[in-house]
């Protein structure tokens, strides 16, 4: 039985007097690929930041003692304002050059890639560098916020293949925020559906019923099969 | 009384220190999209400069408390009103200018507005040198963490960086450089002293190391050449420094790498 590495009980987050998250309780086990699914504005990113200890909250968040957490944020819009090379980006975290090369190799880059400017990278390359950056602290858990926003389908596939590989090789636990249903069903073993308060949670194939999805996204959600013309 | 040559050397040394420190800190401010903040803060120093000129003490000493007050006022108003920082800065600096002109002697308005570094004493140069070295040391120590904060506060916080603490040190550094900057280029042109060398450095640099180094060098060289041009032509040093910096910026456009 895998051990519990995170326990959340009756979590409530209020930002500027507005309730963003309410009544949220769940557990994450070691080795889980745990997804947080919900529409825009559901509080997914807020949840991730609260778990990181960045935002104030009520209720309990209990991480396993001494656990190392890596964080891959959703977007870094100001990166273009700072002329920082890939290598220097890792130096901001005091990662030595040799180790940077190793990590870049792990996320699929080689040669002189480390001299490139972060602002010049494609969205897919950028995301892989961010994953490498999070991995540089040798985390046991990775927190991911919408890892494939702004990336085309081929790039998405690369990211998720990379994540699967890393999970196997490094025995990582992954917490993933997404609004992409296919990612949840293909990739994760546990899902929390969230729209400010929890709508459902459990194994995706069991809990993601049409009724629950309507509840989560509203009645306008439709599923398209193959049509004959 | 210092001789003309000695005075020139003191002015050059003080100018190079202030220009270099401003250029270096300017690279951080440009990354944080705050390069223009030095402008309003510079204007805000006018009442302090006016008091210093009336009472006959160093303009930087007069300017410093007003910059600090200005930063605190903007910070408090931002928390209270939720108005954007730029609007608050405009309100605060316009009030500063208005108050200054109530008692700024008109014959000394030029010194207040465009600076005067031509009469730097040895003691003054020494003080400027020590302050600038302390400033450079401080900025160098916060540079990596501030860069990460500039890229993403969340990412910085997730690394356990105390963002408030570093922002406070950073604002303190801005207050010092603005107070020193008004001595060289006056309250009107302080923004240019931090913004232009940094913008030029950005055009020329391939990475963060080059960016910060070029900012420092370009700031120092612009000051040096500006003061020399003043010595040769008699044109005011403050505006000449900015014109030299602008010239470098225009040249850098031909080599733009970013």
Structure summarized in a few sentences:
Chain A has 229 residues and is an alpha/beta fold. Chain A has eight helices and nine strands.
What would the keywords be for this entry?
heterodimer, A: 229 residues, alpha/beta, six-stranded mixed beta sheet, three-stranded antiparallel beta sheet, 8 helices, 9 strands, 32% helix, B: 258 residues, mainly alpha, ABC transporter involved in vitamin B12 uptake, BtuC, 83% helix, globular
Question: What does this 3D model show about the protein?
Answer:
The complex is a heterodimer of chains A (229) and B (258). Chain A is built from eight helices and nine strands. A six-stranded mixed β-sheet of chain A has the order 5-6-7-3-8-9, sandwiched between helices. In chain A, strands 2-1-4 form a three-stranded antiparallel β-sheet, covered by helices on one side. Chain A is 32% helix and 27% strand. Chain A has helices at 44-51, 86-91, 97-106, 123-135, 153-170, 181-187, 204-207, 210-217; strands at residues 4-15, 18-29, 33-37, 58-63, 69-72, 141-145, 173-178, 190-195, 197-202. In chain A, a hairpin with a 1-residue loop joins strand 8 (190-195) and strand 9. The radius of gyration of chain A is 18 Å and the shape is globular. Chain B starts with a helix and ends in a 5-residue tail after the last helix. Chain B has 258 residues and is mainly alpha-helical.
